[in-house]
Design brief:
Layout (H helix, E strand, L loop, with lengths): L4 H5 L4 H19 L9 E8 L5 E8 L6 H22 L7 E6 L2 H22 L13
Parallel strand pairs: 2-3
Antiparallel strand pairs: 1-2
Length: about 140
């Protein structure tokens, strides 16, 4: 039995490794090589490389406000060619994918969602004070 097959059992394929490696290298490049203050505050959450390695969706989140998003996107798009060239120097894959940056809303959405849930619970609590909970064994 080949030694590398245990990785597949854990669901960690070559594709996952490439995605993770691209994410790590890009994060490092953005942190150390880009002198663009617009993109200084981004965090890369995930990278999805297409099976043919032609394209990579690079998901990023930022704690900068929504008003800064167009500037950040512009900065990332401007840097894409440079980042792709540098990636080619650092990663040994036959095709260096074209980078497409996608704003990952999950962090912000998570905060919005918990606010909405709190709000719903508060409103529901005002209505449901006298209600009996329906959980527990049904009485025979």
């Amino acid at each position: 039995m080949p030694a590398h097959s245990k990785h597949h059992a854990a669901g960690f394929s070559r594709k996952d490794r490439v995605n993770e490696q691209v994410r790590r290298e890009l994060a490092e490049l953005i942190r150390t090589e880009l002198k663009d203050p617009r993109v200084g505050m981004v965090s890369l959450t995930e990278v999805e490389v297409t099976p043919d390695y032609a394209h990579a969706k690079v998901y990023f989140s930022t704690l900068a406000g929504d008003d800064k998003l167009p500037e950040i996107m512009h900065g990332l798009k401007k840097a894409a060619g440079f980042l792709r060239r540098e990636l080619g120097r650092r990663i040994r894959i036959h095709t260096i994918p074209e980078l497409h940056f996608v704003h990952d809303m999950s962090l912000e959405r998570g905060a919005d969602l918990s606010r909405l849930i709190d709000e719903a619970n508060r409103l529901h609590g005002e209505d449901a004070d006298g209600a009996e909970p329906n959980e527990g064994p049904a009485s025979e």
